From TrEMBL:
CDD domains: P-type_ATPase_APLT_Dnf-like. It is a multi-pass membrane protein. It catalyses: a 1,2-diacyl-sn-glycero-3-phosphoethanolamine(out) + ATP + H2O = a 1,2-diacyl-sn-glycero-3-phosphoethanolamine(in) + ADP + phosphate + H(+); a 1,2-diacyl-sn-glycero-3-phospho-L-serine(out) + ATP + H2O = a 1,2-diacyl-sn-glycero-3-phospho-L-serine(in) + ADP + phosphate + H(+); ATP + H2O + phospholipidSide 1 = ADP + phosphate + phospholipidSide 2. ATP binds at residues 414-416, 565, 607, 630, 661, 741-743, 852, 858, 882-883. It comes from Crocodylus porosus. This is Phospholipid-transporting ATPase. The lineage of its organism: Eukaryota, Metazoa, Chordata, Craniata, Vertebrata. Residues 127-205 form the P-type ATPase A domain. Residues 905-1157 form the P-type ATPase C-terminal domain. Residues 1190-1199 have a biased composition (Low complexity).
Length: 1248
């Protein structure tokens, strides 16, 4: 055996660092390695076909049926249908089979059509032409025929057909620009880098001659992670190994931009591409309403079984009397009767189950799904939630959680990009304790780019030949300009004073101010910020040939995934140093003297959320090797050994208190020998295929130590518009808001004050590492618990419902290190006590700030609250990839379509453009969603109780003979046609209170909190209401039919007429009850409600008025007409409907008058408003005062035609409840209009 083959087999199949199971080897171009190299072992990989469809022509029917009958409800009705087919049941199998067939057919058609569309999309994608290299020539073939190892050429604006390792491009620097909008929604151009040893190959012949193998990990769904290495064989046997990362992998679905062409080798194909692996759906979340609905179904299933058992038992008790036994022609021998007694009883039990099975509504599932699906469009159509700046509107990724938006008790929000704009602006930098700010005010005028320096060192000898004058300065004193930002209603101006270790020089008696040149340390700081980043310069190829003067005047457009880096580079540009470009691994900057400095980029130590810093290693033109590092102060300060640490730390803390984002900058100088050792260590870590991240982290830790501190920067991230109003509204709604951020405590606390999470009277409690260092964790937690529970004196008070009147306004601040100690299990197993104590403290705080949080810690916090004993509904909102973990963990995840990519939006349940839109999403849409679907669920159970309980009562009057009360057609169509559409439209359109009022009065959200409309008390009320109405239907008709004079000719009505009368009262009662509950009438409601009643009448006339030839018997012939021909029957129907509806009407009137809720007060006020306004303006001439502002004189804005077409729903009576506040009283304050209501924040103001 060849030695190379033996070595390959040993390496591949023996245990080692790179286990063959976890990695794959790809032969570039299917070319065998040179002789003596690793032996060629071909491997089988899938082809490049994408299959997103679920079914085929042959398996559609069985597979779809199997999936549908996995649902418990469908399976239950299938069993009922089979029982009807097997045994002799009182009802036709059609009564169960037809509704089930309707549900199964509609679902199958929907899923089949969707799958057919997926088949079409798959075929179009798989048949796309692709160019690949074969024998040094370009060959064109279909995408589905690509194989792993093929070398592919992709041109500009083409989509990558599979996951490719980037070999070379038409650009000289071996880069290309790519958009990944179809993968993660990011439309910005991303830069990818070719392999260092192959980027010079530009022609097909050069690429085809490449001998290389790629070793990489098995397919993984993570779009932003890839580990591999490429071994390039030249003329010698030993290959050159280069590491491969995510920056070298071009993903399928991404598009090539601003690059003529690229060459790449197919690495993952077909269903193994990262795009295909991300097709997998997220874990299913279930709402509280769905859980309640399932519990109610179990209750009704128990009721169904109880009814069947009771009737089966009473039947045999009834038949125990010889005179009530079966007739002689049905009797069997005594031995047969005794032998089959159990079988007969079981058969009768099943027959009663079939007779009463309609108490479980099969159509409720279909209606609920339709309501959720159609209702989600109201959110996406909301023009108030459309952001014109970004051109984005809300997105619904799943409609299963619509109602959960109305049950949120905790909101966990990120800070940067969520509460703030993520639009960074460079404010200042502190170097060696001295402050530099780009903007200066001289004589009241803002001077931009005044030599780039605002504050200078005033040490002796500073003035001299290197000094430059600041023109127009008539005083030696400078007022330093800094941005104003709003902290609540107070505007703060952050200014520097002479005491801030800043002083200025005045040249002998002259009124002109002289600025000295920058010392060497300051120049090093500016160079560090110009070099330590991953910023790209747009159109950097156009710099060649420009003169120095042109370069200084040419504006640079910087592109980066991090807004902080762009702000720092732009800020340093205003201070005199301009980053130009990265070309051929050399970084070019333009200094203050307009000279171009070139630094060779040796290494980049990328930023990650664990290290919280990044570094670069560069070589200057003089051959000096520097490491420049920037990062969070908590990450940099422990690693510095020199520098003015105390002065810079003081400045950092002050800027953090003022709400500015701070970064520290440090450097280190290496000798060539030291760098060679570090380079070898980094290369070994980067070439590792197993545990690469861990090994890189260890290498970075060894490199980034013993640094020299240069200074710090301050960047401002403005608060988003209406962020403070949104948080204030959420807190009034009883929702607790927590801020989870990676920023330092002072910066995050300042933002919390600015957005009104913390208020002036909020008593701040700290649970930080500094506190724990002074006291033990147990003592700190115990002291905090005593503080927050001082009034109650107990550790068991439940405050999840929001702030109570007697609760102090406490705010808690905790950092990541303290949280780790709380969550860390102790040796004595007492960590659970710490968690409970921590939770009790949090429950009694109005707001909580968690700072210095890692992404996984954010998810831990959400999970901790979610799994607490109260099981509150949680919502997480964020905009970045570091927020994905908590978004997936929360009951409801919301992504903000921000500037840090769309990973959060892609992984969320809903996405919104700005944080301010969360207010309307929860307080309005969430409120409506929950109320509507709660009414739908309760109404479905109510109308089915009304439907089936008379059937139960009827058995007591027919000797438990399983005689049905209703005709087969009525049994079949009751839930499908007669009563289904009104409740569906009600659950889509009902507005029990105006949308604007829900926003103005956030406390109305508390009326529906904690699943208020689906509690057991409400459920029992609806059930007993259904039982009462059913008894009225049955016994009212029974007493009516006892009178022999019901018919004018003296004839008695039969059992089918009796059942038809009961069914007529039933249909009218349940439909009219829904009409009485409807407060928001539209023409569609009228059409559906009255149309459903009309349809029932027309159907009954046709069903009983025509001899249908396909029926073997027609027991309903002329029954409906006979009933309508009787005057007492008409009177009985009207009276029974009134009697059935009267108790519910009286109950609502009494509750509204004696114990009204906040919502009912608003509804009463709207009625008073209509009565009052009608005294002055005829109703017919009234205009609907929609979108009215607080200013009564303002005219309502015009609505766009597109929105009108989308909604199509106008208020029937022209009254918009949105202009009514909650009523706490009326006042006579003058108003501009002649007769109107103005909202003042505390009640209604009228003026006539």
């Amino acid at each position: 055996m060849d030695c190379s083959l033996l070595r390959t087999l040993v390496n591949r199949y023996c245990a080692g660092e790179e286990n063959w199971v976890d990695n794959r080897t790809i032969y570039v171009g299917h070319r065998e390695p040179p002789p003596g190299a690793e032996a060629y072992i071909p491997q089988r990989y899938p082809d490049n076909r994408i299959v997103s469809s679920k079914y085929t022509f042959w398996n559609f029917v069985p597979k779809n049926l199997f999936e549908q009958f996995r649902r418990i409800a469908n399976f239950y009705f299938l069993i009922i249908f089979l029982v009807q087919l097997i045994i002799d049941t009182p009802t036709s199998p059609v009564t169960s089979g037809l509704p089930l067939l309707f549900v199964i057919t509609v679902t199958a058609i929907k899923q089949g059509y969707e799958d057919w569309l997926r088949h079409k999309a798959d075929n179009a994608m798989n048949q796309c032409p692709v160019h690949f290299i074969q024998h040094g020539k370009l060959v064109r073939k279909q995408s589905r025929k690509l194989r792993v190892g093929d070398i592919v050429m992709v041109k500009e604006d083409e989509t990558f057909p599979c996951d490719l390792i980037f070999l070379s491009s038409s650009r000289g620097d071996g880069t290309c620009f790519v958009t990944t909008a179809s993968l993660d929604g990011e439309s910005s151009h991303k830069t990818y880098y070719a392999v260092q040893d192959t980027k010079a190959f530009r022609t097909e012949q050069e690429i085809d001659a490449l001998h290389a193998t790629i070793e990489c990990e098995q397919p993984q769904p993570d779009l932003y992670k890839f580990v591999g290495r490429i071994n390039v064989y030249h003329d010698r046997n030993e290959p050159i190994a280069r590491p491969l990362g995510s920056e070298n992998l071009l993903l399928r679905g991404a598009t090539l931009k601003n690059t003529e062409k690229i060459f790449g080798v197919a690495t993952y194909t077909g269903m193994e591409t990262k795009m295909a692996l991300n097709y997998q759906a997220k874990s299913q979340k279930r709402s509280a309403v769905e859980k309640s609905m399932n519990v109610f179904l179990i209750v009704y299933l128990c009721i169904l079984i109880s009814k069947a058992l009771i009737n089966t038992t009473l039947k045999y008790v009834w038949q125990s009397d010889p005179f009530r036994d079966e007739p002689w022609y049905n009797q069997k021998t005594e031995s047969e009767r005794k032998r089959n007694l159990f079988l007969r009883a079981f058969t009768d039990f099943l027959a009663f189950m079939v007779l009463f099975n309609y108490i479980i509504p099969v159509s409720m599932y279909v209606t609920v799904e339709m309501q959720k699906f159609l209702g989600s469009y109201f959110l996406t159509w909301d023009e108030e939630m459309f952001d014109e700046d970004t051109g984005e509107g809300p997105l619904v990724n799943t409609s299963d959680l619509n109602e959960e938006l109305g049950q949120v008790e905790y909101v966990f929000t990120d800070k940067t990009g969520t509460l703030t704009e993520n639009n960074m602006e460079f404010i200042e930098c502190c170097i060696e304790g001295h402050v530099y700010i780009p903007h200066v005010i001289c004589n009241g005028q803002i001077l931009h780019d005044c030599t780039g320096i605002d504050m200078i060192d005033s040490s002796p000898g500073a003035s001299g030949k290197n000094s430059t004058k600041c023109p127009g300065a008539s005083s030696y004193y400078f007022n330093v300009f800094s941005k104003l930002y709003s902290r609540g209603k107070t505007c703060l101006c952050c200014s520097l004073r002479p005491s801030d270790n800043v002083s200025l020089l005045r040249s002998g008696g002259s009124s002109d101010l002289q600025l000295v040149s920058i010392p060497e340390r300051e120049e090093l700081f500016f160079r560090a910020l110009c070099l330590c980043h991953t910023v790209q310069v747009k159109d950097d190829d156009n710099l060649d040939g420009l003169k120095k003067s042109q370069l200084s005047r040419r504006p640079c457009i910087y592109i980066s995934s991090s807004p902080d880096e762009v702000a720092l580079v732009e800020g340093i540009q205003r201070l005199g140093y301009t980053y130009l470009r990265l070309k051929d691994n050399f970084m070019e900057i333009l200094n203050r003297e307009n000279d171009i400095e070139r630094f060779e980029l040796l290494e980049t130590l990328s930023f990650d959320s664990v290290r919280r810093r990044m570094s670069v290693i560069v070589k200057s033109a003089t051959g000096d090797i520097f490491l420049f590092c920037k990062g969070a102060d908590s990450s940099i300060f422990p690693r510095v050994k020199e520098g003015k640490i105390d002065q810079i730390r003081s400045r950092v803390e002050r800027n953090a208190v003022e709400g500015l984002r701070t970064l520290c900058v440090a450097y280190k100088k290496f000798t060539h020998k030291e760098y060679d050792f570090l380079h070898k260590m980094l290369q070994n870590s980067m070439l590792a295929l197993q545990d690469r991240e861990k090994k890189l982290a260890e290498a970075y830790d060894k490199i980034e130590k013993d640094l020299i501190l240069l200074g710090a920067t301050a960047v401002e991230d403005r608060l988003q518009e209406k962020a403070a109003d949104t948080i204030e509204a959420l807190q009034k709604a009883g929702i607790k808001v927590w801020v989870l951020t990676g920023d330092k405590m002072e910066t995050a606390a300042a933002t919390c004050y600015a957005c009104k999470l913390f208020r002036r009277n909020t008593q701040i409690l700290e649970l930080t590492t500094k506190k724990i260092e002074e006291q033990s964790l147990h003592d700190v937690l115990f002291d905090l618990s005593k503080t927050v529970l001082r009034q109650s004196g107990s550790l068991t008070r439940d405050s999840f419902s929001g702030l109570s009147a007697d609760m102090h306004d406490y705010g808690l601040i905790i950092d990541g290190a303290a949280l780790s100690l709380i969550m860390k299990p102790r040796e004595d197993g007492s960590s659970g006590n710490y968690r409970e104590l921590f939770l009790e403290i949090c429950r009694n705080c109005s707001a909580v700030l968690c700072c210095r949080m890692a992404p996984l810690q954010k998810a831990q916090i959400v999970k901790l609250i979610k799994l607490s004993k109260e099981h509150p509904i949680t919502l997480a909102i964020g905009d970045g990839a570091n927020d994905v973990s908590m978004i997936l963990e929360a009951h409801v995840g919301i992504g903000v379509i921000g500037k840090e990519g769309r990973q959060a939006a892609r992984n969320s349940d809903y996405a919104i453009p700005k944080f301010k839109h969360l207010k309307k999403m929860l307080l309005v849409h969430g409120h409506f969603y929950y109320v509507r679907i709660s009414e739908l669920v309760q109404y479905f159970f109510y109308k089915n109780v009304c439907f089936i309980f008379p059937q139960f009562l009827y058995q007591f009057f027919c000797g438990f003979s399983q005689q049905p009360l209703y005709d087969t057609a009525y049994l079949t169509l009751y839930n499908i046609s007669f009563t289904s559409l009104p409740i569906l439209l009600y659950s889509l359109l009902e507005q029990h209170i105006g949308a604007d009022m829900l926003k103005r009065e956030p406390t109305l959200y508390r009326d529906i909190a904690k699943n208020a409309l689906l509690r057991w008390r409400v459920f029992i009320y609806w059930t007993f209401l259904g039982v009462f109405d059913a008894m009225v239907f049955f016994f009212g008709a029974y007493f009516l039919f006892e009178n022999t004079s019901v018919s004018s000719n003296g004839q008695m009505f039969g059992n089918w007429t009796f059942g038809t009368l009961v069914f007529t009262v039933l249909v009218f009662t349940v439909t009219l009850k829904l009409a009485l509950d409807t407060r928001y009438w539209t023409w569609i409601n009228h059409f559906v409600i009255w149309g459903s009643l009309l349809f029932y009448i027309i159907f009954s006339l046709l069903w009983g008025g025509i001899v249908w030839p396909f029926l073997n018997y027609q027991r309903m012939y002329y029954v409906f007409m006979q009933m309508l021909s009787s005057g007492p029957a008409w009177l009985g129907i009207i009276l029974l409907i009134i009697i059935s509806l009267l108790p519910d009407v009286l109950k609502k009137i009494l509750c509204r008058q004696l114990w009204p809720t906040a919502t009912e007060r608003i509804q009463n006020a709207s009625r008073q408003y209509r009565d009052h306004i009608s005294e002055f303006t005829p109703l017919a001439s009234m205009k609907s005062p929609r979108y009215r502002s607080n200013d009564c004189s303002s005219s309502p804005p015009r609505r766009s035609n597109s929105h009108s077409k989308k909604m199509m729903f106008t208020h029937w009576r022209g009254i918009d409840y949105s202009i009514l506040p909650s009523v706490f009283g009326y006042s006579n304050k003058p108003c501009n209009s002649s007769a109107s209501y103005c909202y003042s924040g505390s009640g209604l103001e009228t003026s006539v």
